[in-house]
């Protein structure tokens, strides 16, 4: 959406806070006002030196810089890329700890290779989370702090649960975690991009499927059940979903910066008031939303204080920031996994149908791209970046397209081993017939969000590449065909996806599945398919949840393979599951994604007869549902390519 730009001022840059754990004492810090006059980019030496000077002002030995924003968002705006500013690391997940004499960055296996290439080893130590011998953040702090040391952080950028956990760990050894009154990165960041506050898009019932008033009422029922007077909603996708509004404040994520307090009679929306214009107010009125009061985004803490002084009991999410959590006295606070997230995760009939339609159109775009790639690769002019741009163009031609759902992971050869690789001018590789090309991409449509990964070899793959791909495929097919009881844990599917790899001692370092929004975030939780059964987002599966199914394998310095579809949880038929788990209810998956899986990379001898039959049935669906749309789009070449790509596979002789 292209609009005139408005700007929002971040809370943590303006308010002086006194929150749980105390606030550091020290001289008044107005350096950001002075530094703002000079917007010359600073070197890493200067950035870290200035932060360390501020740390001395606050008498802290360590300062924590997370990757999230004040709403615990995974994907963040340019204004909130503090971790990138201080480290040069561009991944979506990581935590930096700066001490007076050293600094380290922790990130998970998706980003080990990427971070290794982005960090300056003269200033930063990379901590590869999950690898043997790598200390955790807790262990590193405990090993390096001096007796009685203070550790500082911005209370808006750390979840209250993590603040409490880490604070307890440090306290056991005589250290103290404190919430600083100012964000130290913000103070030294002299060329920081402004925060956007663009106009909003109203989402009609034809796409949302449920009035905002009905969603709000469902939340109020939850409040009643738990004896709460109001709930503070801080997750941006939850606010957008509740109000049937969409924004563009974060690239590829149709959300807008806001907080929402829902009581039994009122709604207080904290955002840039200018964008709640006549169109938005008319939309909310038509959605039955009454008692709405719009306040400035920066007034969320005073707004909470009003509720507190009124004697109200307030519900907050386990993911809410320490700043919000600490603003509520313990005896007036109720904390639990977000009830809005659980409501949003279960798509209504209109949303579910829209997701299916969006995947047909998206499938046509990806098929047209793969056909184009096959036709164009020998010209020598196709690169990771130009390929991603071409795929974007094919998506742009589809009905109801709004934007991409994330920057495409267009990765050839060794770049494919970087799980969340993002091509740049510096890393852009030509795509040739001499390696595996991994393309992970998605689109935002008015009726749904997509996320699909295919790995292809345009030449002759090696035996090892075929084996790796086929074992990933076996796990992928096992998840897609699974039958399971209602509320089955996501860990079940994580094991199914890995077994064929584990059989020969291979594995991958990321989760197997994440939830996905309906014209919302490409990652949403619940559900999640992860190895950690204690993960808060592992809420158990119910009908009409949507998840990715994405096992992979990555050979560092050589190649990566991943296959990813979006699956929908549906009821299994009684004929298929006659015993129905003793009345508990039987579920299975319907695959929404409609893009063929390359047969050239498959080692047929590794597939069972049942797996071949499953793959052939899927390919028939792809041709039947996507083929007619290709002809409508006047692309007979892509239709012919799809016909060949979905030909029935037979067992190896």
TrEMBL record:
Entry keyword annotation includes Metal-binding: yes
What family is this protein classified in?
Belongs to the peptidase M24B family.
Q: Which GO terms describe its molecular function?
A: metal ion binding; metalloaminopeptidase activity
- Creatinase N-terminal domain: residues covered: 49-170
Q: What's one Pfam family the UniProt record gives for this protein?
A: Creatinase_N_2
> How far does the signal peptide extend, from start to end residue?
none
Family annotation (PANTHER family):
XAA-PRO AMINOPEPTIDASE 1, XAA-PRO AMINOPEPTIDASE APEPP
Domain Peptidase M24 span(s) in chain numbering:
354-569
Give every Peptidase M24 C-terminal domain span: 586-648
Q: What is this protein called?
A: Aminopeptidase P N-terminal domain-containing protein
* Native organism: Anopheles coluzzii
- Alphabetically ordered keywords of this record: Hydrolase, Metal-binding
Q: Which InterPro entries match?
A: Creatin/AminoP/Spt16_N, Creatinase/aminopeptidase-like, Creatinase_N, Pept_M24, Pept_M24B, Peptidase_M24_C, X-Pro_aminopeptidase_P
């Amino acid at each position: 959406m292209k609009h005139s730009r408005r700007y929002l001022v971040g809370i943590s840059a303006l308010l002086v806070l006194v929150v749980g754990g105390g606030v550091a004492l020290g001289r008044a810090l107005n350096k950001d006002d002075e530094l703002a006059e000079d917007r010359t980019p600073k070197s890493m030496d200067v950035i870290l030196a200035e932060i360390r000077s501020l740390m001395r002002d606050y008498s802290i030995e360590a300062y924590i810089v997370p990757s999230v924003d004040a709403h615990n968002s995974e994907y963040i705006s340019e204004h909130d890329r503090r971790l990138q500013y201080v480290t040069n690391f561009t991944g979506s997940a990581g935590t930096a700890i700066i001490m007076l004499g050293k600094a380290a960055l922790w990130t998970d296996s998706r980003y080990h290779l990427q971070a290794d290439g982005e960090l300056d080893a003269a200033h930063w130590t990379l901590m590869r989370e999950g690898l043997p011998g790598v200390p955790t953040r807790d262990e590193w702090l405990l090993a390096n702090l001096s007796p009685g040391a203070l550790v500082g952080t911005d209370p808006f950028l750390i979840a209250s649960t993590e603040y409490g956990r880490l604070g307890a760990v440090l306290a056991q050894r005589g250290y103290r975690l404190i919430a600083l009154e100012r964000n130290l990165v913000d103070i030294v960041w002299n060329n920081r991009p402004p925060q956007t506050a663009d106009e909003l898009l109203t989402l009609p019932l034809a796409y949302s499927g449920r009035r905002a008033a009905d969603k709000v009422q469902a939340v109020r029922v939850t409040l009643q059940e738990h004896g709460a007077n109001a709930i503070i909603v801080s997750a941006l996708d939850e606010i957008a979903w509740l109000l049937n509004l969409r924004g563009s404040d974060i690239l590829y994520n149709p959300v807008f910066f806001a907080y929402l307090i829902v009581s039994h009679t009122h709604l207080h929306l904290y955002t840039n008031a200018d964008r709640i214009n006549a169109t938005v107010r008319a939309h909310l009125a038509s959605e039955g939303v009454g008692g709405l009061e719009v306040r400035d985004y920066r007034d969320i803490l005073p707004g909470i204080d009003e509720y507190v002084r009124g004697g109200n009991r307030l519900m907050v999410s386990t993911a809410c920031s320490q700043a919000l959590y600490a603003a509520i006295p313990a005896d007036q606070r109720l904390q639990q996994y977000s009830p809005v997230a659980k409501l949003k995760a279960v798509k209504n009939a209109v949303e579910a149908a829209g997701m299916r339609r969006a995947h047909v159109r998206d499938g046509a775009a990806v098929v047209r791209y793969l056909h184009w790639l096959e036709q164009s690769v020998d010209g020598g002019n196709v690169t990771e970046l130009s390929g991603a741009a071409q795929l974007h163009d094919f998506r742009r031609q589809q009905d109801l397209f709004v934007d991409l759902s994330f920057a495409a992971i267009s990765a050839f050869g060794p770049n494919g081993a970087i799980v969340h690789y993002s091509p740049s001018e510096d890393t852009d590789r030509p795509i040739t017939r001499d390696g595996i090309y991994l393309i992970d991409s998605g689109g935002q449509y008015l009726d749904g969000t997509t996320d699909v990964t295919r790995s292809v070899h345009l030449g002759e793959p090696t035996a090892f590449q075929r084996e790796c791909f086929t074992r990933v495929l076996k796990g992928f097919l096992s998840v897609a065909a699974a039958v399971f009881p209602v509320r089955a844990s996501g860990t079940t599917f994580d094991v199914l996806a890995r077994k064929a790899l584990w059989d020969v001692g291979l594995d991958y370092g990321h989760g197997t599945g994440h939830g996905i929004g309906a014209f919302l975030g490409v990652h949403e939780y619940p559900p999640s398919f992860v190895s950690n059964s204690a993960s808060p987002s592992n809420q158990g599966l119910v009908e009409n949840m949507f998840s990715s199914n994405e096992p992979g394998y990555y050979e560092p310095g050589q190649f990566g393979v991943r296959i990813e579809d979006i699956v929908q949880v549906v009821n299994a038929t009684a004929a298929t599951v006659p015993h129905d788990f003793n009345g508990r209810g039987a579920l299975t998956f319907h695959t929404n994604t409609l893009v063929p899986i390359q047969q050239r990379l498959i080692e047929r001898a590794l597939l069972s007869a049942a797996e071949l039959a499953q793959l052939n049935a899927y390919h028939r669906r792809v041709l039947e549902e996507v083929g007619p749309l290709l002809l409508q789009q006047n692309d007979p070449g892509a239709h012919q390519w799809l016909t060949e790509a979905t030909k029935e596979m037979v067992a190896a002789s």
